[in-house]
Amino acid sequence: MKAVGIVVEYNPFHNGHAYHLEQAKKVAQADIAIAVMSGTFLQRGEPAMVDKWTRTKMALASGVDIVIELPYVYSTAPATDFAKGAISLLSAIRCDAFAFGSEDGSIQPFLNTYQLISQHRTEYNSLIKESVQTGVSYPKSLHYAYEQLSQKFPAPYIDLAQPNNILGFHYIEAAMMLGSKIKPLTIPRIAAGYHDALQEGASIASATGIRKALASTGSLQSVQEVLPDASFHYLQDWILQYKKFASWEAFWPLLQFTLIRHSASELTRYAEVTEGIEHALLKAAKTSNSFSSFMEKIKSKRYTWTRLQRMLTHIYTGFTKEQLKSFQAPSTIRLLGMSTKGQAYLGVHKKDFTLPLISRVASTNDAMLAVDIHAAEVYSSSIELGAQQATLPKDYQMPPIRF
Amino acid sequence: MKAVGIVVEYNPFHNGHAYHLEQAKKVAQADIAIAVMSGTFLQRGEPAMVDKWTRTKMALASGVDIVIELPYVYSTAPATDFAKGAISLLSAIRCDAFAFGSEDGSIQPFLNTYQLISQHRTEYNSLIKESVQTGVSYPKSLHYAYEQLSQKFPAPYIDLAQPNNILGFHYIEAAMMLGSKIKPLTIPRIAAGYHDALQEGASIASATGIRKALASTGSLQSVQEVLPDASFHYLQDWILQYKKFASWEAFWPLLQFTLIRHSASELTRYAEVTEGIEHALLKAAKTSNSFSSFMEKIKSKRYTWTRLQRMLTHIYTGFTKEQLKSFQAPSTIRLLGMSTKGQAYLGVHKKDFTLPLISRVASTNDAMLAVDIHAAEVYSSSIELGAQQATLPKDYQMPPIRF
């Protein structure tokens, strides 16, 4: 059986994801699709709107065959490490190919860009350094160095200003650096841009657009058209039970309290909290009454919004620099759910997997899994605050979803 | 001017406190009374029902002339250190005497008990050790050793089974160990026992009884008879503004979240968290939906309720073993409020104080004060959760209350 891998967050699973999934299977001529999905906290440094189990059900209901978890250590990491974790796992579970969405949908420019940068790494790095030293931000300096380099060695390259292209580039970089035989494929994205608002009458919208529409209208009906039926119903069930979707705004009282109970110096123990920002975080926490007003106070040219949110994620879950340093590579494949076809694939190919497949974590003593279970507990406790009797399934007791 | 010192929590200030205050001034023939009052977290390991400023107002309105703060480091400590901190401060502010409530109201048995224990310290300690080794709890072993010793050297001694007598004993011990000239006095307690429920028609009730009545009836009117008018009105104002009194039950969602976001090993960093209990704390936090059900799960013969609450206080405020170890003695006298007479006393005697008098902490860089300000911020943030617009005064900006 041939498997295609995809890297997903499904926050939430929408029609664009369904399209990407279908195309990935087609382009890769795959029998099944395996999604490596972020668990409770995501790459932009925020809690997933619904838990990993609900998102797994959405995925399986819409045609994904196997869902495995991208560990917290990678799901909340900058693009390079996020990609490394995801591609390692798709390789370990023996996918033949992986497919990612990009703006123009052709793979050669990605490979060209990878070749360009890897063959001129020293020059590239010194161009970045040069630019950073003049006071330009790191992302802008990257862009400048890339522009310089690609003008010097002309070829069709990708536009690294597009968020999806950046991730795609890092996927390829990860596959190359891992020496994996997994084949990179790309699928042209359709319609909605990354952060675009919902278009009247359109059946495709971005996940960001969907979350924004939900936050502003407070009504699931407003996004029904851009979601598969299954997604809509799972989100509806969630709201009935837990009253709210997870978000920093919803978690703000807990985040604020967590910040305030720390001393400035203790905040610097957490991953990605750069020395110096801890005072700004504390000062803003003490004087803000919402997450958005807090962010207004701490945002600066020096840090991207995403970077700030990742710091906050680590503070919130108590994930330290020391912990981060202790992890080198994924150590297990955690199964979140499977279809009948997915189960058949596991039966046939399990013996070839390069990492142990874990279905039940209760009896496993793995440090990276322990971080995921801990993050899920922090997440559940935040959701349950105010939801009274409703309790989320205990992550460490959950068996994989069968569909 | 002659000053008598009293050690108080005023949680809340009630008629029994008014009686004690009046008697203290009379017995000591004092011109003014100085109260050293716990700030935001108290000796039984719980948050004060209203903040230090409101409790200072109650005290001044009912005849206290000067209120100074007992720092967090001492206000949340076991009796020995609690007493040491309080008596150090009353000595530093040059009180001639201090007066505490006791069951029989005569000072000689306290002095006898102190002499007995200090002169037979080695024997006393080995009797305690002997008993603890047979599996008896520490408090019970203390009691056993004391019984043995007092039978061997008969004299009128105090009953150390009474909570007020234990504190009194430690006050005297502290005064003696500090070599302070401050004179110990005791005043017989009237009516209500330490934990007694409110009696119909009685004008005196214990603070514990008052808080219990408030918690069960939810109505301030139920305790109006046992409070001075000023206390009643300050409590009424508080409830109008903040909707609830502080308590572990009210802070439970935040305490639960705080416990859950820690790993077991990280919990042992906090003061008084004995190795081994961290697992029980985490397990109980994950499976309880109220503070009382949580406490039911962690209580055991090994730890008193108070001891458990003190651990939780330190976890909640983030106060570590390392911090605790770094403090040897009070370093400043923090003024919370004063009457006109109190102000006159300060004018005359300030030059003789053995520690600096601090009126505004904003410009002070003292590590022990920093702990108090931090504890007040954690407390305020907990009160403000759910109270929406209402914000408590910022502790570090507050000038002393003038009355």
Most extensive interface = A-B, 24 and 24 residues
Helix content of chain A: 40-55%
Task: Write down how many β-strands of chain A occur, each being a DSSP E stretch of 2 or more residues.
Answer: 8
Strand portion of chain A: 5-15%
Structural class of chain A: alpha/beta
Family (chains A, B): Belongs to the TmcAL family.
Binding site for ATP (chains A, B): 7-20, 101, 164, 189-190
GO molecular function (chains A, B): ATP binding; ligase activity, forming carbon-nitrogen bonds; tRNA binding
Catalytic activity (chains A, B): cytidine(34) in elongator tRNA(Met) + acetate + ATP = N(4)-acetylcytidine(34) in elongator tRNA(Met) + AMP + diphosphate
Keywords:
403 residues, EC 6.3.4.- (chains A, B), ligase (chains A, B), 18 helices, homodimer, alpha/beta, tRNA binding (chains A, B)
